[in-house]
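seq as requested:
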Amino acid sequence: MVSSPKLYLLCKIFVMIFSWANSTDFISHNMRDDLRKMKEYFKTNDKSLFHNPIFLRSLNNLENFKDGEQGVIIGEVLEVYVNILSRMMNDTTDPDMKVSISHTRSRLETLKKNHFPNTGTLKAHLQDLWAIAPDDLLVQRRAIQELLAVFNRASLLGSKLQACKELSRRKRQTRTSRI
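struct tokens:
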């Protein structure tokens, strides 16, 4: 038979392990400390900073996008943060602050590399597409020449995506009908 103190300790350990396993907080104590130092150094308690968010606006609407699209958006947000922190580190003369910024930037780079690695090539590809000048006569002529092949590939991909949606819908319906 297990004694009450041992049972209490066992329950407490189980609760701690269960809470760690279900925790959604990925920010380490060291990172929190670095962020606290940066907030103090850069005086982020100014009330004017709490209006018109820069990044949270994009992240609040992520549920409107598919998982792959969400990954691209978050990867780009992380990339912008890395650039901002690099600029801040170059402009800062305080050696302790440089260390805090460097640690934070390193964590962001690791997160991006491990979880959102391919956003750079997609971004470059999209920038190339956005750079196409629709008013240029040569571009217009080339576009007409390539239209049939582009339309064909887009239709094929659209059909494939539609088939995947239909398959997912059927699987959901099958699961719900079994219940």
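The first helix runs from residue 4 to 21.
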